[in-house]
Design goal:
Largest interface: A-B, 22 and 19 residues
Number of helices of chain B: 12
Structural class of chain B: alpha/beta
Number of strands of chain B: 5
Number of strands of chain A: 5
Number of domains of chain B: 2
Order of helices and strands of chain B: HHHHHHHHEEHEHEHEH
Distance between the termini of chain A: 43 Å
Strand content of chain A: 15-25%
Oligomer: heterodimer
Structural class of chain A: alpha/beta
Largest sheet of chain B: 5 strands, mixed
Distance between the termini of chain B: 84 Å
CATH architecture of chain A: 2-Layer Sandwich
Chain lengths: 138, 304
Amino acid sequence: MNDDLSRAGGAPVPVLRLGDVLLVTLQGDLHDGTAEQLRQDIVAAIAGSRVTGVVIDISGVEIVDSFLGRVLAEIAANARLLAAQTVVAGMRPAVALTLVELGLTLPGLRTALSTGAALELLGRVDAAATDGPRREPR
Amino acid sequence: MRSEAVPEHDAAAPQASPTDEVGAFLNRRREQIAQRWADEPLFRAVFTVSRDEAVEAGRSVVDALAQVAASGRVEDSDSAGFTVVREQLARMTAARSRSGMSTAQVSGEVDALRAPVVNLLVADLPDVPAERLRESTEALTVLMGTLRLVVMETALTEVQSLIDRQQMQLLEVATPIIRLWDGIVAVPLIGTLDSARSQVVMETLLEAVVDQQARYAILDITGVPTVDSLVAQHLMKTVAAVRLMGAECVVSGIRPAIAQTIVHLGLDLGTVITRAGLADALAYALHGLGADIVHATPGGAGHR
């Protein structure tokens, strides 16, 4: 991996807005600086628009270290303060095992098998919590 | 090898070490030794069908011994000569073990091969000095002892490979992943859980969750006789990992004794969803998927 590139900022992770949900897809190795940047981007995106959910798809991530685990937990905590639910989708078995071995069970984090399941989960939570007043066509 | 120090008398053979002498003797008397061995219990029991076959096997063993003696390394069980007969010896010991003999008994039978050869050697060298005869017999005895060692080594290697194979099979057999319903997988655990098995269970279960996109994973421990803190820790790790992947893990079939042990050990399974039996766990999972079980009998319809 090219460490110098990532230190200098690296390629930022795109944060997509789909209706009232933010979708973030992580691919490959994520460097500390990029992860930190992502956290700020997501918080800014939630604050700047009225999203109610954040879906982080990590099915393309093979290795998660303790730092990225903590960043994920922080994103979830920040999003909750801004009234948005965070769902981590598609975690690989090896990654799950690593996190558990590291003792990072991420109790505050919601998880889903896939992005589709995550969106479903958010939709259901949304509908249950607010009975769907925000579902009007925009 | 020890060098020959005894001065040569009037023997016909030129100066030769005891091992060379033994090698020459084995080559000379190969046929006779093989014939005598064929009557020993070890060969008789293995080659029940034909005596010729036993004699043939005996010949190959004598050849190997002669080769080892010629190389001068009679006490070395790794001698090149033995590699040829290892398969033969493995077959023989395996046959004896199958008929229910202990390793010590097989070893005793191999030892019984020594007496006929030593007797032949003594008879073969009637006019050599006593000192020289003693050294030759000793060399032969050491050689036969090495043969015994090789036989035992071969037997142990066989047993070890069998154990390794069975261990692999056990691991495979012990962790079947069953798809109970669309989105529900179950692992019925049977037998004692150790760290290695728990690890395999954890990995296969997580793989199954991904493969089948299962939203519920059921760990049924009805067949697990005891749970210690280590196993409980593994269960909790599995539950946590399954949750991280976005599925829910239900532990079912905790026996009363195990429940008491867990409470006694002070383990907190508070975060783990538990159900009494596999059926209850399945019902819970189905309910979570929105597929409830209803009775078909008229008037008996209702939620389980």
